[in-house]
Amino acid sequence: MPPSSLHPKVYIRLLYDIVVFLCRLPFWLLHHSLAALQRRHREIEREYTAKREVPRFPPRLVTLSASEDETSYHNSASDSEDEPLALIPPSPTHSTAHSPSIPPPPYHSLSSPPQHGPVSPPSPLVADEKPTPPPITPEPTTPTMSSKHFDPNPPHLLLTSLHSQTLTNPSLALDSQNKILYLRPSSKSSSQRVHLVSGGGAGHEPSFSGFVGTGLLSAAVSGTIFASPSAEQIRTCLFSRLPPSSETLVTVMNYTGDVLNFGLAVEKAKAAGKRVEMVIVGDDAAVGRTKGGKVGRRGVAGTVLVVKIAGALAKRGYKLDEVAKVARLVAGNLVSVGASLGRVHVPGRAVNKEEEGEKLGEDEVEIGMGIHNEAGVGREKMELKRLVGKMLRMMLDRNDKERGFVNVNSNEVVLLVNNLGGVSVLELGGIVAEVVKQLGEDWNIKPVRVLSGTYMTSLNGLGFSVSLLNVVNTDIGGPGMIELLDDECEATGWPAQISKLTWEERNQATREEDASNGEEVGESGLRVDAKAAQEVLTRGLEAVVAAEPDVTRYDTIVGDGDCGIGLKRGAEAILRHLSSKPLTGDVVIDLANIIPVVEMEMDGTSGALYAIFLNALVAALRTTSQSEKEASAKVWAAALRQSCEALSKYTPARPGDRTLVDALYPFVNTLEETGDVKKAAEAAVAGAEGTKGMKASLGRTVYIGGSGFEEVPDPGAWGLASFFQGLAGIKKLEEDSNGWEKL
């Protein structure tokens, strides 16, 4: 039959077949390329197995998926420029059940130009390959604190962590087989046109499982620790864990494994007729252009700003091309740099001597360390101020031809200071303050938003990263980046937000009224010799300062080690007060003037106890002044007794509980009985000595445990007894006179 007589449906069918062929062609090419890489990988592995002598890692049982190829940079000082790392994907034919691993091959170059690419995990065996038993197995070192984990089983740890998200956010569901966390079907999610999907290896939490929620991600796909999820996991997410008719934006950090696997799933979705776009984020500014090579910039913590802004825009109902455009604008205006004080330990992995040798020195910091435990661009000895200065120069110096990735010239800049997992909240606050200070002083940048917290971690990494977003116009005729950043969201990993109104109000008002009660202490008429009293009090305070090493040593054994420092700080503050404002001789006025110093300088439990006692002592002396005009030993004893009774209302501490009361009560009792300060001080010392071997009923010693309490006296009691010794003019015990100094 001539072509002209063919039915029109035949032409349509031919055209359809041609389109399907063209759509499938890229997948066939990618499949054959990966197969070639896998064959080359097995060849290298066999070559290395045949001639290796000592493996880098001891054999162990592992469970690896065929997708464990998430890549990262490794740019340590030992890496030579002519030996770049290579992407070596594991064999897809490998069974993932209880397979022994073999040591990874040494770093080989699969291409001539230097590239800082992935650190490949130990490669699984193909079914017909067996490792040659190593002649020598390195002995594991004694585990350090950083290598201890509550759950050292990575597969179990990952699934339980993902499951916990469904417990803390009822709107989430978990596909445990594919490790997909997604929004449950609801009226809110189904009405949204565009949905965001992201993911990557585990170990970066709350990224990205903690960002699944309304206004952020609609789903997150997780790989194993530091390993990309497989393309099949991601394809399952795109095809069946999102609303059927939705459009999807996939955001992924620039690591080879992530880009390949997410990219393959995206192409499959497009071939199936789904509307999907992918945005690759590379915001790291530590690795320069030369070292980055064709791989480009790594994706680090700045990625979360892309997710937040794009997620807010999607929630507002914007189209896919608009959401993707804004996401790319944000990604293109981001710079980040990280720093760390040490490497992290992956749960389930043995610690060997070589890994121990890679640890940073006690005073070293690694600049540019990545989020997969890979080395940074260098190690230096520097304090926080210099470190922050260097990190900011990496991001902002336009004269740095290796970097200078973004011209941060906007009137609006967003600052993100991210905790890599192991920095205390206290220390992170100090880091934020230093970064903001240097941005203003050295770069004339005053961030319009400052975000601080744990957004993207490297397990328990003892480090932080700084990200800057140069805010630009979105050009979509809608909300700007700042407005979208301020939009509310509902995800466990995103901290509670400060409202837009609070930021823009720029309230500078303060409250600086005098905190005093407005009542000046009047003369009481109860007097002592001012000069003699100042000498005696100074002597007692100096005795406390001299006793600080002993008190600190005792408290280190049975407490937290801060008692001696606290007492010394209070004593020195009172001494400074006395030098500027000598005693007047009126005991009520003088004591009332000392109390604020104690309250300001002495914190903790002992500071509160002393403050209560002294305030009660002032009240007792004021009452006594109505009938007495001379502050005799009898008057002091009666006032001290009333102060002890007042103190007993706020603490159950009594003699025998191993507290400072064991020195206080004997002093007061003896002073009442004899009127002799020296005998009272000796009784206080005896009371303090008696606490040796006394089991504590109160204080931190109760929780410490151990037998330390049998060796040393109570630190608080010893410090107070030292004060009483100074008042009485008793010399400090000699080192060989009573055994305390030798402990």
TrEMBL record:
Region (Disordered) location: 59-156
In its keyword annotation, does this UniProt entry include Transferase? yes
Pathway assigned in UniProt? Polyol metabolism; glycerol fermentation; glycerone phosphate from glycerol (oxidative route): step 2/2
Q: Which reaction does it catalyse?
A: D-glyceraldehyde + ATP = D-glyceraldehyde 3-phosphate + ADP + H(+); dihydroxyacetone + ATP = dihydroxyacetone phosphate + ADP + H(+)
Transmembrane regions? none
- One matching Pfam family is Dak2
Q: Which UniProt keywords apply?
A: ATP-binding, Glycerol metabolism, Kinase, Nucleotide-binding, Transferase
Query: Where do the DhaL domain residues begin and end?
Result: 531-729
Q: Where is the composition biased (Pro residues)?
A: 115-124, 132-141
GO molecular function, a single term: kinase activity
Q: Which residues form a coiled coil?
A: none
Keyword hit for Transferase: yes
- Where does the record place the DhaK domain? 153-494
In which family does this protein belong, per the annotation? Belongs to the dihydroxyacetone kinase (DAK) family.
Q: Which NCBIfam families match?
A: dak_ATP
> What does this chain do?
Catalyzes both the phosphorylation of dihydroxyacetone and of glyceraldehyde.
Supply the name of the protein: Dihydroxyacetone kinase Dak1
Originating gene: dak1
